[in-house]
Write a structure and sequence with these properties.
Length: about 300
């Protein structure tokens, strides 16, 4: 089993080795035939929060390009439109949450590294970006701070402690995680009550989800016993047979152990256009299928708040 080392690193498990042996072929291939980690989720007593309170939600997948930031922006915006008070927290040093709202991340003087370093409180860096929707931004300075956090006491709880200063002001806090399993992601999973996993419908991303599910269980055992999986959100779904095979086989393997949200978020250039314009998808192209997928997910989550 993997372990979180003394330096905050995630050490891979030998149990992941069978995943590498899975093969791709034509439409009838069992793509997830050897996905042992996903099948073993029930052994870890990982439960889905169905209709329960989701106050602090981490959006995590260590693979880049899985639509984590797109999901954070548009899920947060959709929940805010429903009248809930939402805080987005960016733990990715790339600062894409700020950029997605038209804010140049590199020019921000107040950002998350100052909070985790104890120089500012979280409310001091918060920016209102839309009605009911606030942002705690980050930029490249957060990556510099991450290196220094390894030597600090209770380094994995810095974000959780920082959120306490603002938690009562919101119905839900959504944490956008970096594309890694390093200390910033550990902080996010330590602070969160639930995890939403965006998953691009391709084979390699599916393997990464298997590893993430195992890491989440390690977090539950060692740092955060209350951490639960909200579900998997299929993203960037295209019309290829391969993508639909991966999606259908994922549903079959997981069954009721971990929820796979429907509908999937379809691939669309409109999401890229929205980011370039500093808009949410609801402001740029509200009628596309992907926008409807985020609305449906937002309603399901908001109904439990």
């Amino acid at each position: 089993m993997s372990r979180i080392s003394g330096k905050g690193d995630i050490v891979n498990s030998d149990r992941l080795q069978p995943l590498v042996s899975a093969h791709l072929g034509h439409s009838n291939v069992q793509i997830l035939k050897h996905l042992d980690v996903l099948t073993a989720v029930s052994q870890f007593n990982t439960i889905l929060c169905r209709g329960g309170v989701v106050l602090t939600l981490a959006i995590s997948n260590q693979k880049g390009g899985s639509a984590k930031t797109t999901t954070a922006i548009n899920l947060g915006a959709a929940i805010a439109i429903l009248g809930k008070r939402v805080l987005l927290v960016d733990t990715d040093p790339q600062g894409h949450l700020a950029e997605g709202f038209g804010l140049p991340a590199g020019a921000l003087e107040r950002e998350l590294s100052l909070v985790l370093d104890g120089k500012l409180s979280l409310p001091e860096i918060i920016i209102t970006v839309r009605p009911n929707l606030d942002l705690a931004p980050s930029n490249i300075k957060l990556s510099y701070l991450e290196a220094s956090l390894f030597a600090r006491h209770r380094r994995e709880d810095k974000l959780k402690n920082a959120l306490a200063a603002a938690k009562n002001n919101y119905d839900i806090i959504i944490i956008d995680c970096p594309p890694s399993l390093g200390l910033l992601t550990v902080n996010a999973l330590s602070a969160a009550e639930s995890v939403l996993i965006p998953m691009v419908c391709d084979f390699y991303t599916m393997l990464g989800v298997g590893l993430l599910l195992e890491v989440i269980e390690e977090m539950r055992v060692e740092l955060n016993p209350s951490l639960r999986i909200l579900g998997i959100l299929p993203t960037r779904l295209n019309r290829t047979i391969h993508a639909r095979e991966v999606l259908e086989r994922t549903k079959l393997e997981l069954k009721d152990r971990v929820k796979v949200f429907e509908p999937a978020v379809n691939e669309s250039v409109r999401f890229k256009e929205a980011v370039a314009a500093g808009k949410t998808i609801f402001e740029h192209a509200p009628d596309i299928k992907g926008a409807e997928a985020y609305r449906n997910l937002a309603k399901e989550i908001a109904d439990g708040l």
